[in-house]
Amino acid sequence: MQKRTMLKSRRLLALPIALLAVIVAVGVSVAPVQAAETPDPLANVDVGIINIIGVRANATAPFYIKGEPFGAGVWKPLSPPVVGDKFAAMPSSSNFPGADCHTETRRVQIVATDGATSEYNLVGYTCVQPSGARTTNGLYDIVGGTGRFADWTAGGGIFSIDERADGQAFLALSGMHCPRCASMK
């Protein structure tokens, strides 16, 4: 009798141990596998932020800018806007006079106070209101630079220019520049 009781108690003890072993084995097999850390693709790339704002007092005044990485400077057109076809007529309402919109390209240059320059191609669209006020939004790509921007070989982002009918204007440009990006492998 004592031997039977001992065997029964061993079986009762073995069952929970076996069940625990199965649970642990299943738990380990469904646990997420820790992936090897992937290297940072930007660790050896000198990518920088461009973030500027600007203001122009009137249509003949310079467009003064400030922001990173320029500090202060002047936004200068290198070509007049090349106007494309009209693609939309924004309807007027009691709160908005309407606007005609067309595509547009142009080239500009930023001259920093130390004389370093950077050049950009701008592509986008302009909507002109009956008063002459206009808003231009689009994308830019970096063409090149001189001085401390001489190694800018790539980069891009977005821009917006809001021009009032009297010629006063406001500018925002944000994106990135990539010195030596052409040498990336």
Molecular structure report:
The chain has 185 residues and is α+β, with helices and mostly antiparallel strands. Helices cover 16% and strands 50% of the residues. It contains one helix and nine strands; from the N terminus they run H-E-E-E-E-E-E-E-E-E. It has an eight-stranded antiparallel β-barrel.
Q: Can you give keywords for this protein?
A:
185 residues, alpha+beta, 1 helix
Query: How many strand elements?
Result: 9
Unreliable sequence segments: none
Report the radius of gyration as a whole number of Å: 32 Å
> How many H/I helices?
1
Molecular shape: globular
Lateral arrangement of strands in the main beta sheet: 1-2-3-5-6-7-8-9
Q: Secondary-structure map with pairings?
A:
Elements: H1 2-30, E1 48-56, E2 63-68, E3 71-77, E4 82-90, E5 99-112, E6 117-128, E7 134-145, E8 152-163, E9 169-179
Antiparallel strand pairs: 1-2, 1-9, 2-3, 3-5, 4-5, 5-6, 6-7, 7-8, 8-9
